[in-house]
Amino acid sequence: MTTTTTHRYTNRLIGETSPYLRQHAHNPVDWYPWGPEALARARAEDRPILLSVGYSACHWCHVMAHESFEDPETAALMNELFVNVKVDREERPDIDAIYMEAVQAMTQHGGWPMTVFLTPDGKPFYGGTYFPPEPRYGMPGFRQLLLAIADAWRNRRRELELAGERLAELLQRTATLAPADVTLTPALLEQARQGMLRSHDPVEGGFGTAPKFPQPMNLDFLLQTYLHTGDQATLRAVVLTLHKMAAGGIYDQLGGGFHRYSTDELWLVPHFEKMLYDNAQLARVYLHAWQVTGDALFRRIVEETLDYVRREMTSPEGGFYSTQDADSEGHEGKFFLWTPAEVKALLGEEDGRLFCACYGVTERGNFREGGPGASILHVARPVEAVAHALGVSVERLTAVVERGRAILFAARERRVHPGRDEKILAEWNGLMIHAFAEAGVVLARPDYIAAAERAAGFVLAHMSQWQSEAGDVRLWHTYKDGQARLNGYLEDYAAVALGLIALYQATFRLEWLQAARALAEVVLARFADEAGAGFFQTSDDHEQLIARRKDFVDNATPAGNSLAAELLLRLGKLLDRPDYTAAAVETLRLLAAAMAQQPLAFGRLLAALDFYLNPGHEIAIIGEPGAAETAALLAEVRQRYLPNSVVACAAAHDATAQATIPLLAGRAALADRATAYVCRNYACRLPVVEPTALAAQLAGK
């Protein structure tokens, strides 16, 4: 039997592919998507624009939607007084970045949902984040705010327009940054390292106080510096943070994968949405920590996280979905919560008691919003301590935990799952391709490499245009329901290209490297600042907005300039392209002082600076890529954490590879055996054929 849902209201968002926009398609608000139609109406009717920005997994976005956008009285005011525009920040990071900077300038804070009032030509004059329906939390009620803004527009319009003009000028400031007159030296890295460690929480890990975000880019930078400094305090800071996060409620103890951030300093109570970009970056930093320390927990977290992505976040075509919601059945976190009674009903009284003790499930609970006794699973104490306290053996308790995790996971699968945003974003897929490719070779998991190849093939087949009128390669930013749309951003090109480089180094299939080089050429041709240095977030043929920004701050996702700098440095080394390296260095010089003074905002860019200042190896291996001898040499490379090194491999008779990659040119296989050449700054040591000899060279012996 088919049931048809009849909606009282339907607006223009019904024609969009974004799940977030479609969530609002039946609001009584007369929503427009961002575009010429909305802007033309605002100009024609001389009305201010109410811009609302959010994303599908955002809990407070849902709250404001239920409280205000679904309320006919509030919607009537919005429709009477404004042209209402709804934007998915994940689809339009350019719009989100412009107006978030404006809101932060006006209010000294930001977040989502973001609410901004604009002049008809798009200049922001007032804004904020969540507004309640009635005055509370020290904020005006939303209807009250609507009336106040409309009154100010009628009676103090010039004042608002001047404010908008001042903000529009402020938003152009990133475009006019000039490279600092400084020399890039290791002292900058050391200042940044020490600055990060001063912000580190020595008890609970992470940086600063609540709320705590994982900040994988900063952790990765600290791991890189540990390689050069050998500083044990730096390594301890990273290891402590990774252990605390893995034990906390921010990590899904049953299904794997990380929630977006912790609301407390203990990593216990998260906001429950899961983001593809977090899990891609965290998988890599846990992988790197496993390479450095050999800690088996770190490997388990990598595999559980990537297995979660394969299981729940991979489309039938191979691309990776964007997010999972914080809410299910209208309640935040409901899918992930447990009571002692639920656990004991599944495991039995005794095993249930032991499991609850291990995972902090109590009658009191630890998540008030979830109701009486609702607990977020977390590793309350090490299994040895729990076993000692309860008078059972570690082996018995470990068996209970493993059996219990499997049973609870199976039971949880029968619950109503959180919503999933199934749009596929180029940048986030590039980050995840990188994670799968790298983990695949380090952990000897060919299934992970296969997942990376499927995703890369999907992006290049369905989100790329290889025969554009300009004769170059163009990326689309988003794909949903068979449609690829919206011009790719700087971060799309750079993240996908970096993922393809990682995939080349996992498979040595030349087409992945050739595609990465083609994307890098577009970065230089379409995004570079010809009058200065660095790269704009949008291409030179993108829609014209009130500002064309350069994105520098590494926030939850890497900044476009950080990714571009790393891409050009890696390709510059791999392909012997000094022009690539020079463009990257100019980008680094733009932020030299800021990186040292505010290191927590530039983790990925600092890693690129470290790549430049502390050159790794250029490793060429001549041998059949699938042969046992070649694999033995590659294993010596792959088991080590060598973040600043590049590796190329080809058979001795592969003329195409040697012509494409100068590192391979003129290399011979000694005595017809697989042969490794280890170089630094293109000065090479004697070729070797034995893995032990290669290991010695990589260790600097």
Explain the overall architecture.
With 701 residues, the protein is of the alpha+beta class. Among the domains are: 160 residues, Glutaredoxin, CATH 3.40.30; 87 residues, Glutaredoxin (3-Layer(aba) Sandwich). Helices cover 49% and strands 11% of the residues. It contains 27 helices and 22 strands. The strands form seven sheets. The chain has a five-stranded mixed β-sheet, with helices on both faces. Strand 16 and strand 17 form a beta hairpin. The chain starts with 18 loop residues before the first helix and ends with a helix.
Provide a short characterization of the protein structure.
With 701 residues, the protein is an alpha+beta fold.
Task: Say what the CATH topology of the domain at 12-171 is.
Answer: Glutaredoxin
- The best one-word shape is globular
Class inferred from helices and paired strands:
alpha+beta
Summed over residues and divided by their number, the pLDDT gives a mean of 94
Main sheet summary: 5 strands, mixed
What spatial order of strands do you see in the largest sheet?
1-3-2-4-5
Which superfamily, in CATH terms, is the homologous superfamily of the domain at 12-171? Glutaredoxin
Number of strands: 22
Flag low-confidence runs.
none
CATH architecture label of the domain at 12-171: 3-Layer(aba) Sandwich
